[in-house]
Amino acid sequence: MSYNITIAISPNCLMSVSAISEADRILSNKKGFFMSDIKAVIFDLDGTLYNYNKADDAACRALGRYVSQHFGMDPGTIKQEIRECWDIQNDRIGFICGATHNRLIRSQVICERNGWPVFPHALNMAKTYWGAFLEGMVLEDGIRELLAALKKTDVDIALGSNMTSYIQYLKLMQIGLEDCFDHITLSEETGIEKPEKEFYEMCARKSYLRFDASGMYEKGASAIEDISEFMSSCLFIGDTPKMDYFGPIRAGMCACLYLAGNPLPEGVDRINAIENYKSCVEQDGVRLGGYYLPFYRKGV
């Protein structure tokens, strides 16, 4: 049998949650795992859904060939040049907004620092970098199957990423995951970046609207003043400890760290580390670290 539970989220709004008694039986057999009323699973993008390092390496090689051809720069030095010019870029605009990732601005700084003509080279360099980056993107093994399985759990599936919006949309389309998310939140939109608390709160606000029955949806996510009680119903998944694990936890969310072949970082709970996505999909549900999400069974 199925039954409904109404949970108070704030004095002014209620959330209706569908609960399934069959899930209790499933969870009782999953020793070491628990379900903490997770209603939203929010993924990082870069390094989490695809291999960022491989794509960046391909992009840097292409950019190295460009500066070697046009200016005689040693292509092997381009990564260091990019890093140093990124520092200059951050000094100008700070490290808390999406523009810090803008490769056109970074290419402009490279040209300025080396005395090269900004036109047409800055724009050409940015196009060269991103063209090779997109072609070099490799989807993380098992992520497509995991996202498909999460659709069966009836949770909200979202994306929360630092970066400029336009290129993040292109990345999702390049790896064929553009239809896998109920909504996305990007730092260019929010005006602030992970690991700032306000970024995670905006992610949670968007997910909350799916379950809200008070009419708040028509007013938009920004109209929700207090999202604090819903934060613990959100599970954030990503590959960077500071941005995707400790940041969400400090903001009040649950979190799992995707190791992506890396060793377990200090301070990260082993039970909430994901070594590979294929192991997350089980017969009756999805296991994400210490959290088990049973498949939704309508009418059970």
Give a quick set of tags describing it:
single chain, 300 residues, alpha/beta, Rossmann fold, 2 domains, two-stranded antiparallel ribbon, 10 strands, 17% strand
Q: What structural class results from the helix and strand content?
A: alpha/beta
Biggest beta-sheet profile: 6 strands, parallel
Number of domains: 2
* Helix percentage range: 40-55%
Individual helix count: 10
- Proportion of β residues? 15-25%
Which strand order spans the largest sheet, edge to edge or round the barrel?
A: 5-4-3-6-7-8
Topology, number of strands: 10
In summary, what is this structure?
The chain is an alpha/beta fold. The chain contains ten helices and ten strands.
List the helices and strands and how they pair.
Blueprint: E1 2-10, E2 13-20, H1 21-28, E3 40-43, H2 52-71, H3 78-93, H4 103-114, H5 118-135, H6 143-151, E4 156-161, H7 165-174, E5 183-186, H8 187-190, H9 197-208, E6 234-238, H10 241-251, E7 254-258, E8 273-274, E9 285-288, E10 291-294
Parallel strand pairs: 3-4, 3-6, 4-5, 6-7, 7-8
Antiparallel strand pairs: 1-2, 9-10
Helix pairs in contact: 2-5, 3-4, 4-5, 9-10
